[in-house]
Amino acid sequence: MRFEIFIAARYLRARRRQAVVGLITAISVVGVAAGVASLIIALAITNGMRRDLQERLVGSTAHVELMRTAGDGMENWRELMARLANVPHVEAEAPGLYGQVLISRGARSGGALIKGIIPADERKVGNLLQSIHQGSADELDPEETLPTGATPPIVIGNELALTLGATVGDTLLVTSPQGELTPLGLVPRYQRFRIVGIFASGFYQYDSSYAFMRLADAQRLFFEQVVTFIVLALIVVVAALNILIALTMMVMEKTRDIAVMMSFGVRAEQIRRIFLCQGLLISSIGTVLGLIAGYAASVAGSHFKFIHLDASVYSIDYLPFAPRFTDALIVAAVSLGVSLLATLYPSSSAASVLPAEALRYE
Description:
Radius of gyration: 28 Å
Shape: elongated
Strand order of the largest sheet: 1-2-7-4-6-5
Order of helices and strands: HHHEEHEEHEEHEHHHHHHH
């Protein structure tokens, strides 16, 4: 494909009769770069927020915890529980979804480890729910249907309730660091919960920083990284549309050249590959520039800590960054894949040019 790549690169460098085509091509490169950089920075911030809060806030342990080391949970947890029930020496099993959050009530706030549970299963593996001395955990049952617009329930420890000055029936604001990230900045995930029970286990670490909610509510609160990726990936889609427009206009501009090449024996398949290569060159340049810019910004933010936060809201005083190599691979693949789709139509249009019709009035 050296011939096709040579022609595609020459078309990108050549001076055009229509200046708007060159402008749209430049905008396409910048758009892809901006989209890729935004995704890299957004994912780095999400990873950094999760890492720092997990290090700072108190966690808990069970006899045995089977956890996924990366990602946002286990999709096949029901099948996994059924398999674990048949493992020798396993007496009981229960699903749980953990997440570090900030819980606040008015001017008072405190860090907590949220655990999304199914009460009937949780009672088989632990006794914290048996230590509830105010209210009950009945409303955490997934079979309980909440009225439309009702505030979801939460059960907290006695020491945490004292810190917040809260009691049964009060409403709390739960802030998750795994919120939505937009090009305009970090938008944390907020959700209000109503206290339905307070437990006192006698173990300070649990009573001061532990809370229970329904498994379904925890899933809605914490599976936000995928949403972030999808929302910001739309930037790449917009850039791909620019590529489609640029290539379509270039095909119109180069119709005579295409006809001449075809009259010299260049096959339609080669013409198609020329414009496919051109679209991939545009997206590749934008993707590389975006990766460089995104990682440079993430490394600089992690090193200099120049973006400060309100510690009373986020529980940390600066915005952390934790870029990952796997994120770069995924973002690059999405960027190139979407851009490739955008080149299919204009490349097919170029291959369908009829030399006789194109050169009739030349």
